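Summary of Year 1 activities. Much of the first year was spent building the evaluation harness for sequence design. The harness presents a backbone, in tokenized form, and records the residue chosen at every position. We chose the following record to illustrate the format because it has been used consistently in internal testing since the harness was completed.
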């Protein structure tokens, strides 16, 4: 590599909290934890259904902020997949012509 500069792969990790999370991720996860604690206090935990309902918010938010390879976290992976399937995938051909189909006068 002559006169080249290679950017390390982890340059943006220094802008993250603990190298993994943004402020929004931590707020989202803490809301999930708070909801689960409230559910654990208020719901009767005699049946397995109520235990699952009580632990569901922390499980879902933990899944969303979980880091995955090649993406930031599951939240961005899901957003990219939804954007791929929802947005237009047929590209309109404009051609190479400078006049865009109009004849030169």
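For this record, the design step produced the sequence shown next.
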């Amino acid at each position: 590599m002559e006169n080249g500069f290679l950017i390390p792969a982890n340059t943006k990790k220094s802008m993250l909290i603990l190298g993994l999370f943004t402020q929004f991720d931590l707020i989202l996860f803490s809301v999930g934890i708070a909801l689960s604690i409230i559910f654990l206090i208020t719901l009767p935990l005699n049946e397995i259904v109520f235990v699952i309902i009580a632990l569901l918010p922390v499980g879902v938010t933990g899944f969303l902020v979980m880091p995955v390879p090649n993406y930031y976290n599951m939240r961005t992976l899901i957003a990219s997949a939804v954007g791929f399937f929802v947005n237009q995938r047929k590209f309109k051909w404009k051609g190479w012509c400078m006049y865009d189909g109009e004849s030169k006068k």
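The CA atoms of residues 7 and 22 lie 21 Å apart. Quantitative recovery figures across the full test set are reported in Table 2.
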